[in-house]
Design goal:
With 349 residues, this protein is α/β, with parallel strands linked by helices. Helix content is 46%, strand content 17%. It has 13 helices and 15 strands.
Length: 349
């Protein structure tokens, strides 16, 4: 990739719907982007010659030089192409992360004096442990994304909602929003991706984990999209039970959950069951009526319906393991985890 003054070079690892969305929007906004894909995905994208986004945002971003601001979108299956980028966002599925990290770590020397960072937008908490072990604490930026996307049969990425991307350092309290986090937030916001820097990224990560365990646990086992889940009082109660168990593990880990865009967990925990059911019904009433698009399903449910391996261990198994280490009982999460492991085994054969 050519070095261009005043432009940021960013690597995106993983060419699924989330990775394509980040890559296309960042390139369109003037950044030089290298999208690292599997050989099959790289060949498919090169054949298409572009990344197409539709839904909450519409974009037709060709490979090569992009838009009046001159960003570039390159696709490769060679990790060495990331050797000199300013930072890398890992957007693979959770169960693909270890292999992807190993490939990238061989191309980017963690001991290099050059400043660069890594961040992962996978579901779950273990992603940051994997990145920290490979690249070191000082390279790691904590990241949480609720950008909702799904792939159509023709390869188009449908954006269900841009949500919010949260970024922050893992420094102990009182942490601050550092200059590199501010800079990355600015890049994302300029690309049309709502983003914010936060001083306590652990709170955001655990809050999203509460939401993910609840949403995935209910949606995957019922095969229902969000609007269908929230319209059913029994499923709202099931969601609440899973959230409460996850919050108990967070408390034992010394983390206080909060209210964040798309997952106001503290408010959920303060509500009675009746209040939460009424709140959820209001969300359904305010949603547009129409056919359920791929992006309306939670990502793990999308994987189930497409016959792909699900991130069971990275989301559920990891919370159960942390609960065991901390002496917290999580019978509902353990039960759901066992069921989802069984589904995964059926999918993977």
């Amino acid at each position: 990739m050519p070095e261009t003054a005043g432009r940021s070079s960013i690597g995106i690892v993983g060419a699924g719907s989330l990775g394509q969305a980040y890559a296309a929007l960042l390139a369109r906004a003037g950044n030089d982007v290298v999208l690292l894909a599997s050989p099959v995905s790289a060949a498919r994208l090169r054949g298409a010659g572009r990344v197409l986004l539709t839904g909450a945002v519409t974009a037709d971003v060709p490979l090569g030089t992009t838009g009046v601001r001159g960003g570039t979108l390159g696709v490769t299956n060679d990790p060495s192409a990331l050797a000199f980028v300013d930072g890398v966002i890992f957007a693979t599925k959770g169960h693909q992360l270890r292999n992807a990290v190993a490939d990238v770590a061989r191309a980017m020397d963690p001991q290099s004096a050059r400043e660069w960072w890594v961040a992962g937008v996978q579901n779950g908490l273990v992603k940051d442990d994997i990145l920290r072990d490979a690249f070191g604490e000082t390279r790691l930026i904590g990241a949480v994304s609720i950008l909702g996307a799904g792939r159509e049969q023709d390869g188009t990425v449908r954006i269900g909602g841009l949500g919010m991307t949260y970024l922050g350092e893992f420094d102990p309290p009182p942490a601050t929003v550092t200059s590199r986090v501010h800079e990355l937030v600015g890049r994302l916001v300029a690309a049309g991706i709502p983003s914010a820097g936060v001083p306590d990224i652990r709170s955001v990560l655990w809050s999203k984990a509460c939401n993910a365990v609840g949403v995935f646990g209910v949606s995957v086992l019922t095969r229902l999209a969000g609007p269908q889940m929230w319209a059913n009082p029994d499923l709202v109660r099931a969601f609440r039970a899973l959230v409460r168990e996850t919050d108990a593990v967070a408390k034992a880990a010394g983390v206080t959950v909060g209210d964040y865009r798309g997952f106001p967990i503290r408010t959920y925990l303060q509500m009675t069951a009746s209040e939460h059911i009424e709140y959820a019904a209001g969300l359904v009433a305010s949603s547009p009526v129409g056919p359920v698009a791929p992006g309306a399903y939670p990502s793990m449910t999308q994987d189930l319906l497409a016959g792909r391996q699900m991130e069971v261990e990275e989301v559920f198994g990891d919370v159960v393991a942390r609960a065991e280490r901390l002496g917290v009982e999580v019978p509902r999460i353990t039960f759901v985890s066992d069921l989802l492991r069984g589904l995964n085994a059926a999918i993977t054969g």
